[in-house]
Amino acid sequence: MSTVASVECTKCGAANRPQAKFCGACGASLVVEVACPGCGAPNPGSRSFCDECGSKLGVGSVPAQPTSAPAPPTLSDGRYILGRLLGEGAGKRVYLATDTRLQREVAAALFKADGTDETAMRRARREAEAMAKLGEHPNVVNVYDFGEEAGQLYLISQYMAGGDLQDLLSDAADHRIAIEQVVRIGADIASGLAHAHSQGVVHRDVKPQNVWLAPDGTAKLGDFGLAVAEGSSRLTREGTIIGTVAYMSPEQGLGRGSDARSDIYSLGALLYELLCGITPFVGESPAAVVSQHVSTAPIAPSGHRTGVPAALDQLLLKMLAKPPEARPQEAAEVRDTLDLIAATVAGADSAPRDVAALDRITDSTFVGRERETQQLRAAIDDAISRRGRSVLVSGESGIGKTRLVSEVAAYAALRGAQVLWGRCYAGAGAPAYWPWVQVIRDYAHERDAKTMASELGSGAFEIAQIVSEVREQLPEIPESPPLDAEQARFRLFDSISRFLISASDRQPLAIFLEDLHQADRPSLMLLQFIARELARSRVFLLGTYRDDELADDHYLNVVLTALSKERGYAHIRLRGLSDHNVKAMLEAVLQQPLTRRRELKLAETVCRESEGNPYFAEEIARHLIDSQVLVWRKDRWVVDFREGQELGIPRGVREVVSHRFEALPDETLKLLSTAAVIGREFDLQILTRISGLEANAVLAQLQPALDETIVRPCVGEPGGYVFAHGATRDALYDDLPALHRCQLHIAVGEALEQVYEERIESHLSQIAYHFAKAAPRGDIAKAADYAWWAAERAVTTYAYEDAVSLFDTSLRLFDSLSEVEPRRRCDLLLALGDASWRAGEAERARATFGEAAETARDLALNDHYARAALGYGGSATRISITDQADERLAAMLTEALDMLPVRDTALRVRVLARLALELRCKQAMDEAGRLSAQAVEMAERVGDPKIMLRAMHSRQWSTMGPDTLDEAVASGKEMVRLARIVGDRDMEFEGHHLRLIAHAQLGDFHTVDEEIAVCDRMASELHQPQYLWQAAVFRTMRALMQGRCEEAGRLALEALSIGQRARPEAARAVFGAQSFLTKLADGTLGQLTGLGREAAARYGQAWPSAFVWLLTETGQLNEARARFADLTADSFRALQQTSDWLTSVCALSIASIAIGDREAASGLYELLTPYADLCTLFLGGAGCLGSNHAFLGFAAAAAGHDRDAVRHFDLALARNAEVGSTYVTPRVCYEYARTLLKQSDGRGREKAMGLIDQGLSYARRFGMRVEVERLTQLRQEQREQKSTLGWTALDDVAQSVEQNRPDLRAVAAPDGTVTIMFSDIENSTVLTEQLGDRQWLKVLHRHNAVIRRHLSEHRGFEVKSQGDGFMVAFASASSAIRCAIAIQRDFAALRDRLGSQVPCVRIGLHAGEVIREQEDFFGHNVILAARIAAKANGNEILVSAVMRELVAGSQEFQFGEAREEQLKGLQDHHRIHEVYWR
Predict the structure, then answer these.
(1) Long-range contacts of 912-917, Cβ-Cβ distance < 8 Å, separation of 24 or more
(2) Distance between CA atoms of 1379 and 282, rounded to whole angstroms?
(3) Residues 6+ apart with CB under 8 A from 6
(4) Is there a shared CATH topology between the 66-158 domain and the 165-351 domain?
(5) What pLDDT sits at residue 59?
């Protein structure tokens, strides 16, 4: 006989019986468990989810602790004597106790919480308070006492000798009890709940373990540990799932608020289990169970058990309804119904099996999507870990998107996320951003006004514009300042994005958007925006769409392309189920394996006909049962058809729908046809009004459609219903006669007017849609007015694309009227044109404004004409990229000015200001200046600061140039002051921008950097793409000026990314200009030839000039000379003195060197001379190349004016160093050196070599490859003239090391310092000539041997040797000096012995930090050491001041007095010391 091994206690080692939970010897826990972080229940350590509440175990879960202290023998000063342990739950132990005062048995519950666990203490007190509040009731476990003993809370309650309901179920055959007993127990529990609810207490955890039985069988409700008073604040986290998974309501499963109706749902689930032996929903995981609670209809109890009364069947299904409002609203109603059923209980088995099977069709096992489910669960886990994710799921109709999303939503809720839903509907007048409105409304429903205000933050006003409930909840929201169209929409998008991300900080959000193929364009644009912002948030965003219904021009395609480039995005395409999975689904429906030949044949047929589409497979199964192909015989489903028999399987969606309709009563079908006119989603209140029926009658007629799942209630939308399949609604709508359809549309429109009279603005799109649909036979003028009104509403909510469509509808309707008021039509055209601009439809806008202008002219509507002319021009650009004027616009504005009365009005100021800007583009600078001055003067008289700001803005941009910089500085300051007074942040930024570019041209870069910092701050505050882009452009400009080319390239790309969302064309143009400079530096400028040629043809005069420069840099001199000649012909007639005139002159000046046209170069020099002390900018601050002296130097050098060139180059180097502009320094050094090398004196040549070294130092530091090559080549050319230039072996070695740049980190001291020693033979060239080659080689060999011997002795590292020149590296400065002294002493001894044939050696030393200085180490320290050595005489050792300081503390060496020396090629004087070695 086998025996079961005992369980050994890990604490004391004692043996215990296998079923024991605690050690009999020491009381220690024997079960390895972890406590659930959600409800505290203990679970086996191997589990992933809590079997009490479904929360995920793992991170944050802690081992379940045994009672913190042993139970005291008595409680309450000895009144209660504890006896045996009755049981143990997650938070308490319950003992049988004796009340010595009343001599009765009681239950004593000792809570495991102690004073250190505040949450558990609160929960314990809450249970006691809740049960005490209920007082005595026959169906509630009565509480007698509550207190604290030795730090432990205890609760004394009625002892229930009959045990709990779970025990009764466990002992029952088939895990179910008699129907009569189910009804009686249900009535008892409902009575207890009714009492609790009347006291304002919601239980929230109704389950068999919490229902106790008295000896007489009376059921009593107990364990109110999760109870909460209705209306009170939750002690649990919002979104936490409260209750036990098998019995929880859908709203609890989604983490939403629960009320009395949640208890009714749980009671329904409990009674279902008592009756059927299983809970309504089972699954492989808690997520799967919650998913079914949320989205799957339960099988009727009669499908599991024969003899269930129809009334009980219907009651339980009603209690298990998804929307709370569809359930019985009070527990008393449930109790009364059960009492009636108890009186009529009968045991007949009347429920046909096919009904149950049909029910299971909507509850088929979720098969074939395991991979997708795991992928989506992982994405949710990522989001909860603050790695926000966005996923789009696509597939054909019926492929299972909704079911998959439901499963995932349940998992998200289990993981603690708040689940939010948004559904898209085509047509039916859904307002703009409809899915997002639902999401925000869903979220706001769970929050009070104070919390919402806090979470909405500064974006509350924008969000309230589209979600009326927010406005109602927060009526005092301050209005945001006005912005232009795109900025306003960005502010809305950014407000919603920041709100959702901020809300996710409190609790993760899981947002589900269904049917995106039906979404309006603004909703999709918002989706694209939000998905891009999610990277570091706790937001999971999932959208579904039908890819087979997505047209090529649908905006969702644009979104899909954009999202594919975002991190954290994934796309899942659902395909048909495999044959194996379809068969498994059928087996789940029929609840039997399909193994017989006919069954397998049937399964094969369903697989083939459905092509793996779950919806079609379900409908085929439904059809086979309805048509008696599947029949119930002898406790089994049997396939009943003959070989070759036609099964009549539906061939498409419409045929499926027709089959479904056949089962409906005529009145239901008629009602559904009426509902179809309302839309795929319809409201019971509207349907009641237009059907002419009472609400009860509507519900009754709707019930068959609900039973057939043709329609279903909208979760979270009381009174809302939706057609389960879009094809159903479409079929019903299409089958309606045209006249009847129009009549119904009118009825719907009128019903919407009446129902939403108080808040009609939120429903304007719906009303407009229905009246427009009825227009041929309805009130066309009314329809046109509503469409206009709805369009204006769309503009205020930044849904510009919707506004265009609605204005179009209004215009079409107006034009169909027999009599149209021309002025109103003109107003409508102006509104349509404005909306078209805002929607980005520029050509459409111009055409519309053009038509409006013609209408206004014909009607002599002067103001309308002026508005049309302004509208035709659109908004004036801030950064000019083209000087091509719009001739028609200029003519229209001029005509508008003539038409307007000559008096001071804001409209006239606007026309003057806009015309001035257009005249600037026409090169009519004088006229532009005159009109802009008039605009400013008139604005002063009008007295409107906002109009004044527009006028000042126009004045500065229309007259911008190097001669008006002082005015620009003053105007910029005044604009900032005025803008702050009126709260116009746009113009405040413009004022700072104006000051920035003016001060930059004046060379005041200290103020420029201050203004950039202000613009950065304002851009961050405003968070508008326009300003964020400009701030990024300014930062790039400064990086380029300072030669930080690699960083500038990265910043330019960032600016482009931002600018694409603000001003795409301008952003691309600015990026192209900045890329010119970065690619010029890295040698890839040729890549821009094609784009440069296109820009030169398209944009203003600076672009053709810059293209000439590009051609010279890339060696395309023939084309460069031809273009240069065109631009400089006729005394530079092609160059107009506009804001970018100086940019053109500077570009042509540097190009003139390669062109070789001295006469044109002289002309450029004369043009630029008056502006020598300025700096030239391009594209309104996109770039600056520093002082104009550099370009004057280029022009002078090209013209052959060397003296002027030298003067300007010197000034350029000094001025650029002062303002922090080094980009052009290597080129200046190069051209300056070339100019000096033309001269014959040695001093000029020596300075040229120094300039080459200086230029190379900068070029190498900043990675300017082209300049490095240019300067290196120039220096190489000079090596052929060594003797003339005094070139030595030191120069050869230094040049070679600079080019090769060996890694010296291995010889660095621990602090990163490396000491460099250079040495060579004094006057080696003279010695070579004196000794001859053979004798010189002997001397050289002896010299090198001496050097290398001492290097070895002093641990020197030979970096490079060339001829007699050496460069050596040392880790120690002292070792280097010792080595140098040893070398000199050795050569001195050789000279004493051998005489003059021994050469004199000169040595120089310097130290630097190779680790920290990296690239600059070679450009500075190596050159400096070589120059120090070159300054030494024979037999002399010289060191830098740095070296002197490094070894001063040792007192080992003697040094001479410091002397200031000008070292070759280096600008500043350097202090050096002689080392005494003799």
Answers:
(1) 912/938, 912/951, 912/954, 913/950, 913/951, 913/953, 913/954, 913/955, 914/870, 914/873, 914/876, 914/954, 915/890, 916/954, 916/955, 916/958, 917/876, 917/954, 917/957, 917/958
(2) 87
(3) 15, 16, 17, 18
(4) no
(5) 39
Region 125-130: what's the mean pLDDT?
A: 70
User: Which one of the listed residues 205, 359, 442, 986 is annotated catalytic?
Assistant: 205
Query: Which of the following CATH numbers is that of domain 66-158: 3.40.50.300, 3.30.200.20, 1.10.3720.10, 1.20.1250.20?
Result: 3.30.200.20
pLDDT band, very low/low/confident/very high, at 1 (cuts 50, 70, 90): very low
As a whole number, mean pLDDT of residues 761-771 equals 90
Q: Count Cβ neighbours within 10 Å for each residue of 1058-1073 and write b for 16 or more, e otherwise.
A: bbebbbeebbbbbbbb
CB atoms within 10 A of CB 1310: 6
User: How does pLDDT run across 1190-1242, given as a tens digit for each residue?
Assistant: 999 999 999 999 999 999 999 999 999 999 899 999 999 999 999 998 875 55
331-343 helix and 310-319 helix, angle to the nearest 10 degrees: 170
Dump pLDDT digits (tens) for 1049-1072.
Answer: 999 999 998 888 767 888 898 999
Query: Is residue 689 scored above 60 in pLDDT?
Result: yes
Q: Tell me the C-alpha distance between 1197 and 1116, whole Å.
A: 21
- What is the end-to-end Cα distance of the chain in Å, rounded? 106
Looking at residue 172, what is its pLDDT? 87
Answer whether 467's CB lies under 8 Å from 444's CB: yes
Domain-by-domain residue ranges, the chain? 1-30, 66-158, 165-351, 370-573, 579-649, 883-949, 960-1018, 1024-1083, 1294-1476
Query: Which is more confidently placed, 116 or 1364?
Result: 1364
Q: Pairing between strand 152-158 and 143-149?
A: antiparallel
CB atoms within 10 A of CB 756: 18
Q: The pTM is what?
A: 0.62
* 482 vs 906, higher pLDDT: 906
Place of tokens 């004199």: 1400
CB contact at 8 A, 309 and 341:
yes
Superfamily of domain 1294-1476: Nucleotide cyclase, GGDEF domain (3.30.70.1230)
Q: In the prediction, which pLDDT does 653 show?
A: 57
Fold of 165-351: Transferase(Phosphotransferase); domain 1 (1.10.510)
898 is catalytic: no
Q: How many residues does the chain have?
A: 1478
Minimum mean pLDDT range among 252-256, 775-779, 1209-1213: 252-256
* Contact (CB, 8 A) for 1341 and 1350: no
CB 1304 within 8 A of CB 1297: no
Tokens, residue 583: 């068969």
Which CATH superfamily does the domain covering 370-573 fall into? P-loop containing nucleotide triphosphate hydrolases (3.40.50.300)
Reported as a single tens digit per residue, the pLDDT across 288-335 is 788 888 878 788 888 788 888 877 888 998 899 887 877 888 898 899
**Mean pLDDT over the full length of the chain:** 84
Residue with tokens 């809302």: 720
Question: Dihedral (C-alpha) 794, 797, 802, 808: value to the nearest 10 degrees?
Answer: 30
Q: Of 1422, 1401, 1419, which Cα lies nearest the Cα of 1316?
A: 1422
pLDDT band at 1274 (very low <50, low <70, confident <90, very high): confident
Q: Which two tokens stand for residue 924?
A: 């009519």
Note whether 540 and 510 are within 8 A (CB): yes
- Contact (CB, 8 A) for 283 and 289: yes
Percent above pLDDT 90 for the chain: 38
Q: What is the largest CA-CA distance in the chain?
A: 138
Cα-trace Rg, the chain = 44
Q: Can you tell me the distance from the alpha carbon of 1144 to that of 1127, in angstroms, rounded to the nearest whole number?
A: 9
Structure tokens at 1257: 């130092």
